[in-house]
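seq as requested:
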Amino acid sequence: MLSDQDRELLTAYLDGQLSARQRKTAQRLLHRSPEAHHLLRQLQEDAHALHRLPTRKLAPDFSLKLLKTIAQRGLQPGGARPLPSPRSIPTWVGASAAAAVLFLVAGGSFVYFGDRFDTQQVIPVQTAYAPPPLDPMAAAMLPGVLAEYAKPVKPGVYIPLPELTGQDAKKRLTTELQSAPAHHLVLESRNNSAAVDRMKTVLKGAGIQVLMDPTAQAALQKKQKKQKTTYVVYAENILPDELAAILNQFGRQTKPSDRASENVLLNPMSKKDLQQLAQLMRVKEAQIEHVRLPEPIFDPTGKPPAKGKPKPPASKQAERFAVVLAMNGASGNSPPSAEVRRFLDSRSQPRPGAVRILLVLEEVSA
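struct tokens:
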């Protein structure tokens, strides 16, 4: 049976709030305890359920009303309660002693102050209290602070990008990738145009050619700072070690001014993700799920190729592609672009252990 300490450790592991040493402890617990692995999965499902709940927004004047209520009621922050000391004597003895002391203090106060009270004196009662004016700087900062704390926590597994050079983080990433054939990843940035360029450079360095859908290319060429565009990078036949290197290089090449988070958020690709990807690519879901293999060059009967047929090329690794799409780009009943068709036609037999990735580049405010 898991202890409370083990449960707290798994909760912090899910939130990505552990140090490297604590993560090792959590991973050892998951490897040796099926109950811990089951609890982690249950926590992930609960987080998904909470994420699907409707989002409630606070009124614009909520912070001012809160401060006014605090001032009107004269509320003060409470201190930490001291821990109870071990009982060395019966409880009734302490209660009796406290009652005796209270009686003596009350009696002495009455004798000493009795002749000083004026029974005719009327103490005015303050019926209204005007709260002090709020500092303008605090008033400007408070809504942003409340909005930040009210922001919902996205469910999933958070993996720090800088740690993907180490074996522990790679092993954790590999373990998560083995749970499903396709995964949804989120990388946050403060400048998505620069993020797309960095991702293109990193993918080319990994031997993956990048195809830009016209919707994504048009969004990059506009370069409208006021209009945020979320980009989607879809690739297949990616090994865990390759993905770890790609994510690590992306994080290392990100400027501090463009960095919004040093973590990548990882979740298995859901049915809704597949539907949204199909809409962006303007194809059917079955076309994404099904990999069309090239026609064989040799005759299945074993006969040599007839004259006029091309000779089989030298064996080499199949060329791989990734396609970049824009979330708010044009979609609907229009046919898929030439780039999407080329991506679909170039797919090859998946390598053992390889996965499909739906990488979302999300721009956040500074």
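The chain is about 45% helix and 15% strand.
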